[in-house]
Amino acid sequence: MLDVNLIRKEPETVKKGIAAKGADPKLVDRFLKLDEEWRALTTEIDGLRNEQKKLGAEKKVKEASKIKEKIKAKESRLAEAEKEREAVLLQIPNVPLPSVPVGKSEADNKMLREIGNKPKFSFPAKDYLTLAHNLDLIDTERAAKVSGSRFGYLKNEAVLLEFALVDLAIKTLVKEKFIPIVPPVLVRPEVMHGMGKVKFVEDKDAFHIPEDNLYLVGSSEHSVGPYHMDEVLDQGELPKRYAAFSTCFRREAGSYGKDTKGIIRVHQFDKVEMMAFVRPEESEKEHKFLLSLQEKMMQELELPYRVVEVASGEMGFADARQYDIETWLPGEGKYRETHSASNTTDFQARGINVKYRRRDGLPAGQAGKTEFLHMLNATAFAIGRTLIAIFENYQTLDGKIKIPKVLQKYVGQESIS
Q1: Catalytic residue status for 359
Q2: Which among 27, 18, 38, 15 has a CA at the least distance from the CA of 89?
Q3: Reduced to 3 states, what is the DSSP secondary structure of residue 133?
Q4: Which of 22, 164, 335, 346 could cysteine-pair with 410, CB 3.0–4.6 Å?
Q5: Which DSSP category does 276 fall into?
Q6: Is 220 a catalytic residue?
Q7: Of 150, 250, 321, 358, which residue is the catalytic one?
Q8: For the chain, which residues make up each domain, given as ranges?
Q9: Distances (CA, A) of 370 to 227, 278, 298
Q10: In sequence order, which residues have a C-beta less than 8 Å from that of residue 211 and are 6 or more positions away?
């Protein structure tokens, strides 16, 4: 959630920032009105308690009893005001950093660089579904019978490639001192809200299990981010980085009619995700570091891609800055988003209450002040979309799919035929 003091001190800055993300600036006014009432009630109740304590000390029982009734009534309204205030605060997204490009759609994204050579085929490029069907790599028809639409079975070499990608990502990140972790895929509602996923829940993009009141994660960010919830980390522990593998679940709400076939937009997919906890002054540097690791792994796969800085209106609810990697798909003749990297600054850290203890310039053993750290997340590999990119970019005239050199030792062969 956003810093309450920022909203109080710089309401116009917040209004401008959230408007750039497509949120209603009137949310700020609504919050400030409730916040003012909440603060006034808090002050009034504190005063009444002091008065009650004084009357009690003077043995004025009757007068103290009347004050107690007043406090009870005020506390009832305070609880309501606090609940309303919190509900509005959860609707306010993170404010974009000043240099983020302003825009409403992906057309406003800023292209930063284009890396790699697009393959030049002497034949019409096939799309990944045609290739996968011919080589028995993906079965969506049987998945539809078993599970419904937007599901698929991976088969044969596609399975070997999935685990090869996971192995490549985890080993690459462990060398960079990331802690490998396999997180739960079910989280409590308050955790989802604390992570700034209110829109994900309210848009019904999240799968909910009513009997247990739990949500299936849409990314391992949703369960690895809260790993340090309600904790205070020591400055010496930072940066703390995790490499997470998990299955992810999304309804794909709002994507009606888009990518209804295949495995681009599915309800269930696997992903390796990077998560970082850093000091505030290090978060922009860390963001570029995570992006560099994404590019390193893409370059090892020798896939052509471009990096874009995402426009304000296209960014995630909790993001202050977001980069995307879009990979070239010859079968479609266009780039498709395969990776994202987000700096949520202290927005998620406030929501789940994770801080660090600053020790700059302090003698050994002396406790420093605590403050909220910054949290970042970035895709290592979204498996399905990476497989699609491999299939289409590595296809051959005779209908085979060459396996990227870096993965051949994992798969045990040079091509799929």
Answers
A1: no
A2: 27
A3: helix
A4: 164
A5: E
A6: no
A7: 250
A8: 4-89, 106-416
A9: 18, 13, 38
A10: none
DSSP characters over 161-213: HHHHHHHHHHHHHHHTTPEEE---SEE-HHHHHHTT-HHHHHTT-S-EETTTT
CA nearest neighbour of 192 among 318, 92, 310: 318
| pTM exceeds 0.70, yes or no | yes
> Would residue 417 show up in a list of annotated catalytic residues for this protein?
no
265 tagged catalytic: yes
pLDDT of residue 77: 84
Cα separation, 399 vs 91, whole angstroms: 50
Sequence-ordered list of residues with C-beta below 8 angstroms from that of 76, at least 6 positions apart, any chain: none
- What's domain 106-416's superfamily in CATH? Bira Bifunctional Protein; Domain 2 (3.30.930.10)
Query: What are the structure tokens assigned to 153, written together?
Result: 């079975």
Which of 255, 337, 359, 371 is labelled catalytic?
A: 337
Tell which residue, 131, 133, 113, has the closest CA to residue 123.
131
Q: Is 177 left (phi over 0), alpha (psi -120 to 50) or beta?
A: left
The CATH number assigned to the domain with range 4-89 reads 1.10.287.40
Residue length of the chain:
417
Tell me the C-alpha distance between 207 and 218, whole Å: 9
- Compute mean pLDDT per 10 residues along the chain, 417 residues long, and list them: 95 96 95 92 84 74 78 84 92 96 94 96 95 95 92 95 97 97 96 93 93 95 96 94 96 65 84 97 98 98 98 96 98 95 97 91 73 97 96 96 96 94
Would you call 250 a catalytic residue per the annotation?
A: yes
